[in-house]
Amino acid sequence: MQDELFTVNPDLEPPPERVTQPQTAPVPPGSPLAVRMRPRSLDEVVGQQHLLGEGAPLRRLVEGAAPASVLLYGPPGTGKTTLANLVSTATGRRFVALSALSAGVKEVRGVIEEARRRRQYNAENTVLFIDEVHRFSKTQQDALLGAVEDRTVLLVAATTENPSFSVVSPLLSRSLVLQLKPLTDDDVRLLIRRAMTDERGLDGELELTPEAEDHLVRLASGDARRALTALEAAADAASATEHKTIDLPIVESTVDKAAVRYDRDGDQHYDVISAFIKSIRGSDVDAALHYLARMIEAGEDPRFLARRLVVHASEDIGMADPTALQTAVAAAHAVQFIGMPEGRLALAQATIHLATAPKSNAVVTGIDAALADVRAGRLGTVPPHLRDGHYAGAAKLGNAQGYRYPHDVPEGVVAQQYPPDEVVGVDYYHPTQRGAERTLSERVPRLRRSVRGG
C-alpha cells in the first residue's frame, strides 16, 4: 500500500484545485498485474453500480461533493482500496494511509494532529484511509471519534467484516456504511479481457482460450484481485514455455483451488453456518452438504460443526427421529477421536441424516414454554407426596406420604399429581404428526388422561 500513496508536500503548500477526473500516481515497475490494472478513474471501475450511479453516495464522495466519512464493507477484491485511492485523488486532499495490522494509537493520533495543524495553518484537508479497520482495538477506534466528528479528517475505512460486529457504535454512527458486493462473473470476465489487451497489462502479447477464461472466472469467485493474480501466474507460465496461448491446462497447473468466501471471525462465519442449519431444517440435503463443504474447505473448527449438529438434532428433529441425536453425538465423538480430514465423513453422515430426517421443533418449544413459566414465577411447591422421604423427620413433615409407585400396577401408569398446583393441566410438549412423533401424538394424550385422572 505504501508504494501506491501520494507523497505529502513538506512545505505545506496550498492544496491543488479539486478535480473530478483523478490523476493517479505512477505505478512502480514490476508491480503485480492487479496493481497495474487498478482503475484510474470512475469510468474504469467495474461493478458496484448501486454505489456509483449518478447521485449515489460513493460517486459524490469520489467526485469531492460529499464530506462524510465512510466505511467500505465488502469481501476482498471488490475495489475498496481502489475507491479509497480515487477519493484521495478526486478530492484534492492530502492522502494518508494506515494499516490496522501495524498502526497503533500513537500513529493514529499523530496523523490526526498533523491533519489538524495542516487544516488550521494551511487550509489543507486530509483523507485518512485505514485498511482492515476491523482489526483496530476499541481504544484505537475511539481515538478516531473526535477527528471524524469535527471533520479534521475524512475517514475512509475498509473492512471485510460486517461493521456491526467489528466497529464500535460511536464510529458507526459518524460514518456512512457502504456495502460492496462481490463482482459478477461478467464483471470478472471484463477485467480479465481488459488485462489481456491493455498496455498496462499483457498488451495483447498472449491469447486466452475460452475454456481458460471460464476457469479463471470460476476461480475468482467474485474477487478481481484473485482473477488478475491467477491470470498473471498463467501468463508467466505460458511465457516461460514460449507459448503464445494461455489454455486450460496452463491455468490448472498454476492455480489449483478456488477462493472460499469465508472468514472464521467475521460475518461470513455466521452467514454460512446459518445457511447450513437452515438448509438442514428445510430438508435440502444438497445445500446442507454444500455449506458443510465450504466450512470444511475454509478451515472451520470441525468441533464447532459437530456441536451445531448436536444442537440441531434436538432443536429441529427431536422425537420425530430420536436416532438423529445419537448420530450427531457419534459424529462429534468421531471428529474428536480421528480428527480431520477423515472426520469430514462423520460430519457428512450426520448432516445427511439430519437433513433427511422428519422434522419437529416440539422439543425446543416444550422446554422454552416451561422455562417461560418458571421465569414468570409460576413455580409453586413440590407436591408433598413427591418430596424426598429419605431423611429423619421427613415422614412427620408429610414428605413422600401417599406416593403411588407406577410399577405396582399392570399399566405402569397411575393417576396422581406431579406438577405444582400453579401449572396443573398445562401442556408443554405438543408432538407433531411427523416421523416417530406420530406415535407419540397418540400416546401422550392417553398418558395425560391416565396421569391426570381424566
Automatic annotation (TrEMBL):
SMART domains cross-referenced by the UniProt entry: AAA
SUPFAM superfamilies linked: P-loop containing nucleoside triphosphate hydrolases, post-AAA+ oligomerization domain-like
Ranges for domain AAA+ ATPase: 66-184
Top-rank lineage group of the source organism: Bacteria
Start and end residues of each stretch annotated as Disordered: 1-30
Keywords: ATP-binding, Nucleotide-binding
One Pfam family named in its UniProt record: MgsA_C
PANTHER family: ATPASE WRNIP1 (PTHR13779:SF7), WERNER HELICASE-INTERACTING PROTEIN 1 FAMILY MEMBER (PTHR13779)
Family from the record: Belongs to the AAA ATPase family. RarA/MGS1/WRNIP1 subfamily.
Protein name: Replication-associated recombination protein A
Lineage: Bacteria, Bacillati, Actinomycetota, Actinomycetes, Pseudonocardiales
